[in-house]
Amino acid sequence: MRLQLSTWPDIQQYLEHSHGIIVPIGSTEQHGPNGLIGTDAICPEVVAHEVGKRIGVLVAPTLSIGMAQHHLAFPGSISFRPTTLIAVIRDVVQSLARHGFRNIYFFNGHGGNVATVNAAFAEIHSEASFTGSGTSAPSLKLANWYMGRRVQAISRELFADSEGAHATPSEISLTWHAYPDHAQPMTLEPRLAPSSHFGDARDYRQRFPDGRIGSDPSLASIEAGTRLFEASVEDTIEDYRAFVQTS
Amino acid sequence: MRLQLSTWPDIQQYLEHSHGIIVPIGSTEQHGPNGLIGTDAICPEVVAHEVGKRIGVLVAPTLSIGMAQHHLAFPGSISFRPTTLIAVIRDVVQSLARHGFRNIYFFNGHGGNVATVNAAFAEIHSEASFTGSGTSAPSLKLANWYMGRRVQAISRELFADSEGAHATPSEISLTWHAYPDHAQPMTLEPRLAPSSHFGDARDYRQRFPDGRIGSDPSLASIEAGTRLFEASVEDTIEDYRAFVQTS
Amino acid sequence: MRLQLSTWPDIQQYLEHSHGIIVPIGSTEQHGPNGLIGTDAICPEVVAHEVGKRIGVLVAPTLSIGMAQHHLAFPGSISFRPTTLIAVIRDVVQSLARHGFRNIYFFNGHGGNVATVNAAFAEIHSEASFTGSGTSAPSLKLANWYMGRRVQAISRELFADSEGAHATPSEISLTWHAYPDHAQPMTLEPRLAPSSHFGDARDYRQRFPDGRIGSDPSLASIEAGTRLFEASVEDTIEDYRAFVQTS
Amino acid sequence: MRLQLSTWPDIQQYLEHSHGIIVPIGSTEQHGPNGLIGTDAICPEVVAHEVGKRIGVLVAPTLSIGMAQHHLAFPGSISFRPTTLIAVIRDVVQSLARHGFRNIYFFNGHGGNVATVNAAFAEIHSEASFTGSGTSAPSLKLANWYMGRRVQAISRELFADSEGAHATPSEISLTWHAYPDHAQPMTLEPRLAPSSHFGDARDYRQRFPDGRIGSDPSLASIEAGTRLFEASVEDTIEDYRAFVQTS
Amino acid sequence: MRLQLSTWPDIQQYLEHSHGIIVPIGSTEQHGPNGLIGTDAICPEVVAHEVGKRIGVLVAPTLSIGMAQHHLAFPGSISFRPTTLIAVIRDVVQSLARHGFRNIYFFNGHGGNVATVNAAFAEIHSEASFTGSGTSAPSLKLANWYMGRRVQAISRELFADSEGAHATPSEISLTWHAYPDHAQPMTLEPRLAPSSHFGDARDYRQRFPDGRIGSDPSLASIEAGTRLFEASVEDTIEDYRAFVQTS
Amino acid sequence: MRLQLSTWPDIQQYLEHSHGIIVPIGSTEQHGPNGLIGTDAICPEVVAHEVGKRIGVLVAPTLSIGMAQHHLAFPGSISFRPTTLIAVIRDVVQSLARHGFRNIYFFNGHGGNVATVNAAFAEIHSEASFTGSGTSAPSLKLANWYMGRRVQAISRELFADSEGAHATPSEISLTWHAYPDHAQPMTLEPRLAPSSHFGDARDYRQRFPDGRIGSDPSLASIEAGTRLFEASVEDTIEDYRAFVQTS
């Protein structure tokens, strides 16, 4: 059930029996020579939409732009500053809380979002914590699709040490499952990209000239993507249900 | 050409011959008893994607959430505060400017965004204006799909005084063209919603109990949506080209 | 009745029978070769003071500085960033609301303020809209003196296509009515200034070398100013009364 | 020479021989039972205008609203939060610096502004100090009219221990000199208002029920105001000249 | 009694009989050729800890960084922008208010903090003042150790006109009392540093090449520090008690 | 070598051969029934000071307050909002960068700081990343003392599953090593505190009534603290040296 394709009376009815919602969050950033710029938004979006269909949970519009300052030296990357993303998350949560949503599950596709989204959660909770007021913010969770139990098993099985940390064969496979017309198999040189820490965008591009970190996306395939998709849908149904029950 | 479905080398190549981009911007807010909550994002998105296909212009991911504080008393509406939306637009523009985009065309579906987006443009220009520095921000334009010449002619022809100001038959028709499975023809009571100014969300809901302003969306149809879609695509191609040439 | 020239017991008494106030808002910015830098503040101020005298409505001190980033390449212009002006308006409204004012009428002399002031209104309303709390902000209106019905009739009659968009003969006439010693009739070359869109201050100055947009202020006169003054006073009394009655 | 009553070519010419400007800054706040709400803005404004006439220095429009949170329990008081006032001062200084002003003299009428204006100066200087960049902000000074040497001598002579700290006979006299029609001589009970520290607006009103602190404004007179006006003009000419020469 | 060395049950117990706390606040900034960079934090810290021991008042951890933008041209200085320091103070006060502290005594070692800390107090009080809500912030005071009655008597006696305004023999003596191993007696050239106003860091360093203002720290001694320490402890006990009783 | 106990000429000399600095960062928050409120600041501080002594690296003053909103329902806890802590870190880094420090090593004692400090690093890097300017921020690292290799080995050996996540026997042992007079051995009921996720302060206190998460601090001892201290010093020397060499 997609929020964008619902009417307000639909949502009013939904809230009578559920107070949970999934908010896909990604990024718009380079994903190496053959990875789509929308990879980190596409992955959680397609999984969330399928979860929405299977178990009837409401899915908010995807937050397609995240914290990607380190990718800005590659054309096409768009980033929010952390303080902007904190304001974005705060306003989304407060809007949803206004309507009575009590369990807000951010379903994330971008490692670079994790610190800032958690800081945003703490900023939101601070309002109640500083005043000691009676009303708390909704229960908030950030889940990363690539951290799911079933997903990680498949990644290890298929890609092992070639998975890497950015522009991974797993995420690229999943986008090709979603958009098979955009699959661009390609051999890369070096096969495995380098790995290290990094700072700003200039530093990132010097360390990782084609954008990848530690990965070999030449291993990506639509077939792998289809397996990962199904695995992530199952992981997410399980995790979302646990979240709603315990929070 | 969609940014999300491109790779960074694609964008590098694109920038060799063009410095323009379309950024669809909408809202996630109630649109009356049978209008989709995503109406204001869907309308500019589907038109922009078609424009991208026809003339090869790059289209950024849709900014699906806008300034909709007055709709927050209806379940499902999500809003950014104006200062949040200003930060969002600033970061998007600065990211694109970093790559060399010089003509950024915000293609909008929500009247409530207009003031804040224009304030954001002024905030962005202020950086250069206050310092007198040599580098200016890109050329920025906000265009509303519902203000196109061809679109307005069709709206007047089909809906005349029943168009109204919110949850209009025109925008609802266009979303039904895009998502025919979600078309929900419906007779409403009163046929024409009331019209007036408004303040905050509580005030809005008191004045417009079912969410519409001055409109009769029972007149909406997929056929009208198809005509409006084609008209808006033509309006936008014309207007975008003029923007790029004169800025 | 001017706030600055009242005592607090005067205001306490005023609030027993009225909850309305007029806040003149303008700008401090170049107005072409012979227009006063204070034009946009002077115009609403002198009209508001007269309205205050005639119908006893309270008039706040003029907010003399507005959003004028595009004029900063001309000496003497002073601007607030949009986010600064939003904070200014918010604090003024919250101060007045604290005392029980329920109808706050911003009377404006500068087109460049419109987007930001409306964004500020939305920012103010957001507080109640996001929380759903019981107390709303006061009713807020932005009215532009140059948009009044009677004023526009005179402008069309006297200046027609020579009115233009900045440093107009109408506004300059009105300042000369207010400060006849500062009237500087002058023939300009070209007679009619160019018209176009613009971005930051450097861009503005390149497009409009003497500061005017589309206007011929050589047509300005004290006599025209006197007629416009009287017309604006009448427009404003009518509009303010309608505002207070319907909000 | 008033900025509001000048044209931009006037200012261009002025900047050829001077880089100094006076910015009157005050407050809009209760001043006891018979003091004008605009007292703190009127005092520096009338003195600055006279200084402008006598020595040809440029005078900016008065910043009529200051930091007056502690007065908000009295009807008619308007305040900026400190962070708002810091943004206001920063934008004014940056606008003036853009044109080449190098000596900006804030001429103040409100003790409650002093801390925040000084914090604003430090905020402005921080830009250059943190980066170590070559361009510094202009030289900035905050001068209080009531601290002038000649002014203080007259206050002591005329009012001695009845001067107090808020709604003082000196400032009220000066406003009556400026607006003799608004002089409201009045005997107050108690003759001398109480004195103490204070916190927020509620606390202030509990401690100072009629708004005065430690003062007896029944001693105010137009005659005293005329003497103070002349003294302040002389003090200010002297102090402004010293500022421009040493900075 | 130090907060950092207490448990939460200790503080719960403390709050049953007292609602006061001392918060030492200083700066991390150059103090001339032989003064410690931590001088302004060390001085209030050591005095506050002793006061805590003698009268059992709770002492918060020292806020070691203050507003020191003008010192940033000297290696080792660290500064907060005024707006950052305002946020710091606000969060500390709101945290303490949450637990029931009603008397918060900021004990300061740095003149450069005074304006910003007072602006922060006003920002904190604004919350209650703008809304008129029933709950006020705690009572707040900023006290400077070097302004104590006994301390000033000793400074005048020992150092007279050689005390100066920055890197004074008094503060350096007190740090040597606290850290005798770091005493570095030194003769300076010129004996007395220059005095004047200043702006940003570059300007400061040009005017005061070795960092001192108007002082002769060659007069500093451990013995003087010990006398000043004892004097400041007594001053502070007296002043803190008066604060708690009257607020 | 401690920054607070150095003079500016000392730092000038230091910068001739090194561009690295350690900034201890902790928190002021409840640590269960017998843990010190300063635990998270004390741990990194004492280790950093020893590292400073052994290898001559400069150590900044400890940032004693961190992001601890979830602890605010326990008396004595003080927290910064995430946006405040971001501003704090930004100003500290920019101050140090001004002097030429290129390797800034934040040495942390509080898990709750991790997300916000990493968001702060991204906020700092954004400045260069968005503009593409030539100057990058310094190299930044956040290291947690409790994650050191040697430290974790000892924790596992001594406390195994009783270590838990907050108020752990390891951190409490280390504070007792530092402040043996404040060791308060105590048996707690239940022996092992509960474990779960949490939201705001009220939620935290309901889930963890005495403040601990999953730990049994009755196992803490001075002896364990001494071993952990030595291990952490060695871990940190190794990690700091690697950081300086590779960044």
Summary keywords:
homohexamer, Creatininase-like_sf (chains A, B, C, D, E, F), EC 3.5.2.10 (chains A, B, C, D, E, F), Rossmann fold, 247 residues, 8 helices, Creatininase/forma_Hydrolase (chains A, B, C, D, E, F), hydrolase (chains A, B, C, D, E, F), metal-binding (chains A, B, C, D, E, F)
Summarize the main sheet of chain A.
Answer: 4 strands, parallel
Low-confidence stretches of chain A: none
CATH architecture of chain A: 3-Layer(aba) Sandwich
Helix content of chain A: 40-55%
H-E string of chain A: HEHEHEHEHHHH
CATH class descriptor name of chain A? Alpha Beta
Number of strands of chain A: 4
Q: Which shape of chain A, going by the Cα principal axes?
A: globular
Q: Order of strands across the widest beta sheet of chain A? A: 2-1-3-4
Strand content of chain A: 5-15%
**Would you tell me the structural class of the helices and strands of chain A?**
alpha/beta
The Cα radius of gyration of chain A reads 18 Å
Average pLDDT rating of chain A: 97
Q: What assembly state would you assign to the polypeptide chains in this entry? A: homohexamer
EC number (chains A, B, C, D, E, F): 3.5.2.10
Cofactor (chains A, B, C, D, E, F): Zn(2+)
Pfam family, one (chains A, B, C, D, E, F): Creatininase
GO molecular function (chains A, B, C, D, E, F): creatininase activity
Give a description of the structure.
Chains A, B, C, D, E, F: Keywords: Hydrolase, Metal-binding, Zinc. Six copies of one chain form a homohexamer. The first copy, chain A, has 247 residues and is α/β, with parallel strands linked by helices. The first copy, chain A, has one domain (3-246): Rossmann fold. Chain A contains eight helices and four strands. Chain A has a four-stranded parallel sheet, with helices on both faces. In chain A, helix 4 (114-131) links the parallel strand 3 and strand 4 (139-144). In chain A, helix 2 (39-55) packs across helix 6, helix 3 (82-99) crosses helix 4 and helix 5 (149-159) runs antiparallel to helix 8. Chain A is globular. The model of chain A has no long low-confidence stretch (mean pLDDT 97). Chains in contact: A-B, A-C, A-E, A-F, B-C, B-D, B-F, C-D, C-E, D-E, D-F, E-F. At the A-C interface, helix 3 of A face helix 4 of C.
